[in-house]
């Protein structure tokens, strides 16, 4: 656990006792603060009390002596309206922050020679894969690495800082909105597309939240930006220096997209990862990183690890042995000539677009709770859909959008969709003597049927294995 100093003997309000909130309370208490906790959930409050924390209804508390409010990233800071704790904190002149800001303050309190390196990753899509990939590469190179934040373990639950350590932290737009001093040595923005607009008051607020990852970088800090979308390009134009990452097709009609060898950046050309004008790695051999979107993740990761001192060989070795991340273009199993891909993390059309573009033909399972805009971004990829198997609340609406561009079946739930897709894909594979891909890439949120995308992905996995499909054999990268 990371101890948070600076609040010794002071009362600190903590609202929201999920992964980040309870961890923040422990870190504050270890640093000498007196955290006062509250959560709408009775079970969460009971857990906090069992750990000896003061639990008090913050709506009735005296806010005049609180040094700060530590807010769960799940509670709105500004939109659609400020959470009631935020309003009470502002009325009392109390600072509002989150666990990432506490981490930043803990690191900055160290003497410069004692500080670890920090790599932070944000973006609409790809940030979890990029975070895990960076952690993997650094570990394979023998570095001391701690990975957490918005992925896996909360940042303050990571081990105490040591000068040789590298923290690799995924940060969401919600978490960035709660920062003021967070200044990673390497800050990565993978891409930006419309998402979470209700929480940021529109696209301008969402972009502004993402831009905060660069606002406090130290002298010599490195900014890595995927510049293939107009929003990220706008962020890049506002920086004095950055490492561009581009995987745009050579015939891209975006005039701003740079040539990577002209800007000293990293990117994709002819299937190769390029460092400037030099070939670095043949990404077709990185079996866990299929598709152009994963090439962007690989390029961002390569730039980051090179920025903290890895050699080119160390970086490439890690890239090509990465085992992949669950629910993100994850090969789940094979049944005869049918391959099943779990991309449950694709909760919006931009993520699903990357998955659909990775295969010439798919038996596509999609649906859930639709986000604004429907399937609009996917229309150019409809010819790749051999058949669509639709589930959840969005099934009828998605069927209407697909119309006659592809055959459609309204399946209702994932097990039914898997059974139908597996049968149809197997028939086609046998007739054409080719492999067929059944792809779960929902292009919608999971909350209509499942608590999160992980649960949805595990239902898909169970349904696939229930058919008798065989999971892939993962070879030990060290062998």
Structural notes for this entry:
- This protein has 479 residues and is an alpha/beta fold.
- It has 16 helices and 20 strands.
- The protein has helices at residues 19-30, 42-50, 84-91, 99-108, 127-140, 173-176, 197-200, 203-211, 230-237, 260-263, 291-307, 312-321, 349-356, 395-402, 414-432, 453-466; strands spanning 11-15, 34-38, 54-55, 66-71, 95-97, 117-122, 144-149, 165-170, 186-189, 222-226, 243-246, 266-269, 272-275, 278-282, 330-335, 338-342, 362-367, 385-391, 408-412, 436-440.
- Helix 1 (19-30) links the parallel strand 1 and strand 2.
Could you give a short description of this structure?
The chain is of the alpha/beta class. Helices cover 33% and strands 21% of the residues. It is built from 16 helices and 20 strands.
Task: Give structural attributes.
479 residues; alpha/beta; disordered C terminus
Relative helix content: 25-40%
**Taking Cα atoms only, what radius of gyration do you get, to the nearest Å?**
23 Å
* Uncertain parts: 251-256, 474-479
Number of strands: 20
Strand order of the largest sheet: 7-8-6-9-10-11-12-13-14
| Relative strand content | 15-25%
Biggest sheet architecture: 9 strands, mixed
Class from secondary-structure proportions: alpha/beta
Count every helix, treating DSSP H or I runs of 4 or more residues as helices: 16
- N-to-C CA distance: 33 Å
Q: Return the average pLDDT rounded to an integer.
A: 92
